[in-house]
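Consider the tokenized backbone below.
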């Protein structure tokens, strides 16, 4: 099995190559390439989130915890009609007041309420540590997350996040999901390559456990993953326009001179 640095390097190289191709065929602008390289590289690390104490898993749950905390902060801010939440006057306390008796009133007037901060911090701790511990206890390495089904799941998940949360266009959201899928598949292929012992010309016991359609040892996990994938697919933005644009960029229609009153296209 390839190590973390190998997966990181190969995923970044593959994503960079795919992004360069997309720029070359004018599918994306040059300024869009770094984002796609980033998500493609992240996709190349995702299959190892089911490994105990793996770096990708820790990074993923840290990111999820931050997103969850910011989401809770946004929801409570809107529901409590806290305007200009990120105004410096509200975030920075009046440090000129050092009297203990008046400090609490200063906090309530010029800072985010203590109860809201506690809720946000609690959300962060629950997602980062509690859910992470539960996830580790329920998953096994090279299980359902080492599968093509998981690659599709994460591609759809990133597509939905990019479109609905980050407000990206439909086409660019699908491209973000595609690059995650590319990085994911590259990881699975790399693990299979490392499962072959070329020096002794034999297959290791791990061969065939990385690149598979789903988890054959845990059908319940595969069914749950399938249901989640289908839910994301029906939630995701329309795919047809993205496919049409990619097709037109790869195989553009060239119009030639009229012959017999009819225009021929090749």
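A designed sequence for it:
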């Amino acid at each position: 099995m390839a190590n973390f640095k190998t997966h990181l390097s190969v995923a970044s190289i593959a994503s960079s190559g795919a992004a360069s191709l997309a720029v070359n065929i004018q599918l994306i602008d040059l300024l869009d390439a770094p984002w796609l390289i980033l998500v493609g590289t992240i996709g190349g690390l995702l299959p190892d989130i089911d490994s105990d104490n793996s770096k990708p898993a820790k990074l993923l749950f840290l990111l999820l915890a931050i997103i969850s905390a910011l989401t809770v902060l946004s929801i409570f801010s809107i529901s409590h009609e806290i305007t200009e939440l990120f105004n410096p006057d509200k975030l920075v306390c009046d440090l000129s007041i050092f009297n203990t008796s008046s400090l609490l009133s200063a906090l309530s007037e010029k800072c985010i309420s203590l109860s809201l901060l506690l809720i946000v911090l609690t959300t962060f701790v629950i997602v980062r540590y509690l859910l992470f511990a539960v996830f580790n206890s329920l998953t096994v390495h090279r299980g359902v997350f080492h599968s093509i089904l998981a690659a599709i799941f994460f591609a759809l998940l990133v597509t939905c996040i990019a479109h609905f949360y980050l407000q990206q266009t439909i086409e660019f959201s699908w491209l973000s999901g595609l690059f995650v899928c590319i990085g994911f598949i590259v990881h699975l292929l790399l693990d299979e390559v490392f499962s072959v012992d070329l020096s002794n010309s034999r297959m290791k016991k791990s061969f065939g456990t990385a690149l598979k359609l789903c988890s054959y040892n845990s059908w319940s996990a595969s069914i749950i993953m399938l249901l989640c994938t289908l839910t994301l697919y029906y939630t995701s933005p329309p795919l047809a326009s993205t496919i049409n644009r990619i097709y037109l960029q790869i195989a553009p229609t060239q119009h030639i001179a009229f012959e017999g009153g009819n225009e021929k296209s090749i």
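The first helix runs from residue 4 to 24.
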